[in-house]
Each structure stands twice: as structure tokens, then as C-alpha cells.
Amino acid sequence: MSERDAYPPVSAAWYTVAVLFLAYTFSAIDRQILTLLVGPVRADLGLTDFEVSLLQGFAFSLLFVVVGIPLARVADRRSRRGIIAVGIVFWCLMTALCGMAKTFGQLFVARMGVGVGEAALSPAAASLISDSFKPERRAMAFSVYHLGYPVGGGLALIIGGLVLELLAGVDEVQLGWLGTFRTWQLAFIIVGLPGLLIAALMFSFREPVRQERMYDTEGERIPLAVIGGYMRERWQAYGAHLSAVAFLGMLAVGTAIWYPTFLMRTYGMSASGAGYSYGLVMGLCGAAGILSGGWLSGHLMRRGHADANMRVMLIAAVCKTLPLVVGPLMPSAELALLCMAVATYLGQVSVGVTTAALMEITPNEMRAQMLAVMLFLVNILGIGFGASLIAALTDFVFADDAALRYSIALASAVIAPTIVVILWLGLPHYRRCVEQVHAMQRTRDLQALSHSNTTPSGDKGVDYVQAT
Fold first, then answer.
1. Coil/strand/helix, residue 173
2. Mean per-residue pLDDT for 203-217?
3. Could you point out which of 117, 299, 386, 457 has its C-alpha 20 to 30 Å from the C-alpha of 219?
4. Distance between CA 185 and CA 44 in Å, rounded?
5. Burial class of 354 by CB neighbour count within 10 A (0 to 12, 13 to 18, 19+)
6. What angle do the packed helices 121-130 and 104-118 form, to 10 degrees?
7. Which segments carry the region annotation Disordered (predicted)?
């Protein structure tokens, strides 16, 4: 029996995705809640836009990128459910701890802790999903998982707006022996603690059998030199994919973080109004875009396009450039939100297929680690620099808070075309890499059927590594 026949039942596979979706939703809520609280946090702690951007981006990504790859190496060999469960508990507690912060330094450290916890999720989740679905179905499965980001991000804005609206006019709330809290502090606590329940759900499903392995021994450690050699031989495909994803992260994170503040500064919207409006755009249009991307990738793959996943990324990048650039320049909030709705839909089309594209060219024992590398780049360039780039343009180039709209437009006008060029140049290299990996896997399946009783498992792994 080939590895393709060892996937779990469809119902079990989709249940796994459902639980991981919930985990990702809560991670997005805890990550994005600060977006709507910029005003009160900035006022209470006496911060600049640039300092707030450090809390939104750099603080979160600083330890995320440090612990991400070590955690991923463990996930490629050990219990992926356990790693995710521990991560959920940690980031939820650290989000609640953000609500205890009284200074910039305390809030910075707590946000670093949120990043540490969330670093455990996506690499292990990608490995679980890849082992639950055949290649032609993975894009849709990853798309459903990635729905957690727009849904969670939208809920963060909506919940935050609701808290601010309910406590409008209230400066502080006394919570008995816990002490006195500002309204923005309560928002962190309210969104942080409920996520602890999701950790228990991680043990409600079985881990699937690991598929498409280089080695036949479960839990065998792959030397870093082997991983590096595998990537070097395919550097054009990996380079195009990873660099494009990094710039996609920079563009998406930067605009998402600053758009609610832009709506408030430019059009005079209230914090709750901006939260509701942008939250609905992110939730509805983002969800529709992600599902569309998964469907389109599967459709193209069934029509024989080996490069379906990266092809979808290119199509989405081309189409979203214009609405991203012109949206902040619109004369009304309604038109700005309409442009962002289009851009959000098109941008999220590539989200699920981005992970599927990476998994398509990566053997099982490397998958969590390769996704950790991708997230490393997304966090360094995306979360780390994306938020701060727009803030730096506002503070140091335009030197005017009201010029935030021009900062968003300028950043989009430079980054979006760069992504298109990278994907266009990388597409043929990625296509060849996918075809090569598929051919090697078919050969390995045939060898497994012919020699399962005579060939030592270690020899199969060595042959596969040498063949790559």
C-alpha cells in the first residue's frame, strides 16, 4: 500500500482542521486586539506611533523567530498536538498579562510572550494537515485553517470595539482584590483567557500517520546539513516562494495594523466604528478570499497545472495592487473601506495556497521546519518591519500624524509590484521543482511496494536523500 492510501478518513481529517482553525482564530484574536487599542494605549502610556508599532510588530516577532525553528524541529519528530497545546496555554496567559501592564516595557515583554506561544502553532498545524489530506486537497484544507486569521482578526476588532463602547466614558474599573484596570487592559484580559479551553481540544483527535517521508523510521532526526542541501538544490523555487511570502506579510500586516487608525484620523470615525467596519471587511472578505483561493488551486491542479498554488499567488498579487494603493487616497471612509474590501478578498486568496505551495515541494521531515523558516521571514519582514515601515514614513518622512494615509499608499505602491515580479520570475522554477518531487515520490512508492520485505528502512531514506 502506498503512503497516499494511508491518509485518515475524510471526516477525521476535517475534524482536525476544525480544531486547528479554532486555535488559529484565538491566536489571531490575541495578536490583533492591540490594533484597535492604539489610541487608549498610546494616551495612557505616552507613546509615539513608532513605539506602538514596536508593540504591534517587533515585540511579537522578536522571540517568535528565535523559538520557531527549534519548536518546528521537535514537531517534525514528536507529538504535534502536545506542542500546540502548550503554546496555546502560554500565549493566552501572556495576552491576559498584557492587561496587567503599567509601562511600555511591561507591555513589550508580555507581547514577546504572546509571540513565543504562537510560534508553536502553525508549523505543527501545517504538518498535521499535510498528513491528513492528499496533495490535491491540501490547498482547500489549508484555506479553511487560515480562515482563522481573518475571522480572528475581525473578531478582535469587533470584541475590542464592543468593550470600548460598553465602557465609553469609564476611565477605570475596579475588580476587587485584582485592583484597578483601564478599559484597554480589560480588553486584553477578556480576549486572552477563553482561549485556554482550546488547548484541551488538541487531544480530541489522533495524530495522522506521517506521509511522504525521506526516512522510514518514525521520529528520526534529519541533519540540518541535509535540509540545507535539499534547499540549495532548489534555491530558485524556495527563494521565489519565501521572498514573495515575506513581502506579502510586510504588505498585509502593515496595512491591516494601521488601517483602523487611518480611518479614525482621516475620516473622524470612532474607535468602535472603525473596529466594526474594518472587522467586518477582514472577516467576511478575508474568509471569502481564502476559500476562493483553495477552490481555484484545486481546480487548476485538476486541470494539470503542477504550479497551481504559486500560480494562484501570482494572480492574486497582480489583482490586489491597485485597490491597495488607491484605497487610502479615497475621499470618503465608505470608498476607502470598499477598496480595502476588494484588496482583502484578493490578498487572502493566496493565504491558504501559500502554505500548500511550500508543503508541495517539501518532504515530511522538513515540513514544520520549512514553515517555521517561512514564518521567520514573514515575522522579520512582515510583522517586524511592515508595521514599523508605515509608522516610520508617517513620523520621519511626512512628520504628520494626518499623513498616515499617504504612508499606507506609498508602502503599497512599492511593495505590491515587487511581489508580482518575484512570483513571475519564480513560477517556472517552482513548477519544475513540483514535477521533480512528484516523480521522486512515485518512484519511492513503487520501491516500497516492490521491496518492503527486503530493503532496510534506513537504506530507503538514504536513497531518497541521494536522489534529491
1. strand
2. 76
3. 117
4. 11
5. buried
6. 20
7. 448-468
CA proximity to 80, closest of 374, 365, 357: 365
Q: Please give the grid coordinates belonging to residue 215.
A: 526516512
The pLDDT value recorded for residue 466 is 37
Of the candidates 45, 340, 37, the one whose C-alpha atom is nearest the C-alpha of residue 159 is 37
Helix (H, G, I), strand (E, B) or coil at 232: helix
Dihedral Cα 285, 286, 292, 293, nearest 10 deg: 150
Report yes or no: 277 and 160 within 8 Å, Cβ to Cβ. no
Hey, what's the torsion of the CAs at 366, 369, 373, 374, to 10 degrees?
Answer: 80
State pLDDT tens for residues 388-422.
889 889 999 998 989 999 999 999 999 999 999 99
Q: By CB neighbour count within 10 A (0-12 exposed, 13-18 middle, 19+ buried), where does 211 fall?
A: buried
- What value does the mean pLDDT of the chain take? 84
CB 84 within 8 A of CB 23: yes
Q: Which residues contact 314 (CB under 8 A, 6 or more apart)?
A: 420, 423, 424, 427
Strand partners, 180: 174
Three cell numbers at 227? 535540509
Q: Which amino acid is at 387?
A: A
Count of alpha carbons within 13 Å of 241, Cβ hemisphere only?
Answer: 34
Beta bridge partners of 181: 173
CA angle 140, 195, 346 (to 5 degrees): 35
Q: Domains in the chain, start-ordered, CATH in brackets?
A: 9-198+224-467 (1.20.1250.20)
Work out the pLDDT band at 163, boundaries 50, 70, 90: confident
Whether 1 has a pLDDT exceeding 80, the answer reads: no
Closest listed residue to residue 245, CA positions, set 389, 397, 378:
378
- Closest by CA to 272, choosing from 379, 164, 395, is 164
Specify the amino acid at residue 343: A
Residue type, 346: L
Q: What is the DSSP letter of 207?
A: P
Measured in whole angstroms, the distance separating CA 93 from the mean position of its chain's CA atoms is 20
CB distance 401 to 262 below 8 Å: no
Q: Give yes or no for residue 428 having a pLDDT over 90.
A: yes
Span 311-359, pLDDT tens digits = 999 999 999 999 999 999 999 999 999 999 999 999 989 888 999 999 9
pTM of the model: 0.73
pLDDT tens by residue, 441-460: 777 667 666 665 554 444 44
Residue with cell 476588532: 157
Asked if residue 50 lies in contact with residue 38, where contact means CB atoms within 8 angstroms, the answer is no
Beta bridge partners of 174: 180
For residues 34 and 98, what is the distance between their CA atoms, to the nearest angstrom? 10
Which has the higher per-residue pLDDT, 178 or 326? Answer: 326
